[in-house]
Design brief:
Helix content is 62%, strand content 12%. With 112 residues, the chain is of the alpha+beta class. Among the domains are: 5-45, YefM-like fold, CATH 3.40.1620; 79-111, no CATH class. Strands 1-2-3 form a 3-stranded mixed sheet. The mean pLDDT is 84.
Length: 112
C-alpha cells in the first residue's frame, strides 16, 4: 500500500485537533496515517483490523521461522508418516468409518 503524501502524512498538531476525523479516515479507508513531530515521522495510526492482520502475519512468519529451523536441524517427519500416524490414532480411538481414511480415499479427498 503506497503512502499518499498529501493525505496520509499529518503533523501531530493536526492529529490532535482532528482526532475523530483521522480515526474515521483510517477505519473507512484502511490506510495508515504517518504522524510527524518536528518534521520527522514518529508514529503510524492504523485501524484495528489492519493492526490485527499485521500481528497475525508476524505470528505466522514466526511459526515458519521455527519450522525452517527444525528442518535445518533434521527435526521433521515425512507427510506419509504423519498421515499414517494420524490414521492409526483415529482407528485406535474408535472411528467407525475406517473406509473414509483408507489410503486411496484419503488421496482422493485431498486432491478434490
Amino acid at each position: 500500500m503506497a503512502v499518499n503524501l498529501a493525505a496520509d502524512i499529518k503533523p501531530i498538531s493536526y492529529i490532535k485537533t482532528n482526532a475523530a476525523n483521522m480515526m474515521k479516515y483510517v477505519n473507512e479507508r484502511r490506510r495508515p496515517i504517518v504522524i510527524t513531530q518536528n518534521g520527522e515521522a514518529k508514529a503510524v495510526l492504523v485501524d484495528v483490523q489492519t493492526y490485527q492482520e499485521t500481528q497475525d502475519a508476524f505470528a505466522l512468519l514466526n511459526l515458519i521461522k521455527i519450522a525452517e529451523k527444525d528442518i535445518q536441524n533434521g527435526k521433521f517427519e515425512s507427510s506419509e508418516k504423519v498421515f499414517s500416524d494420524l490414521r492409526k490414532e483415529i482407528f485406535e480411538n474408535g472411528w467407525k468409518d475406517q473406509e473414509l481414511f483408507s489410503n486411496n480415499n484419503w488421496k482422493r479427498k485431498i486432491r478434490s
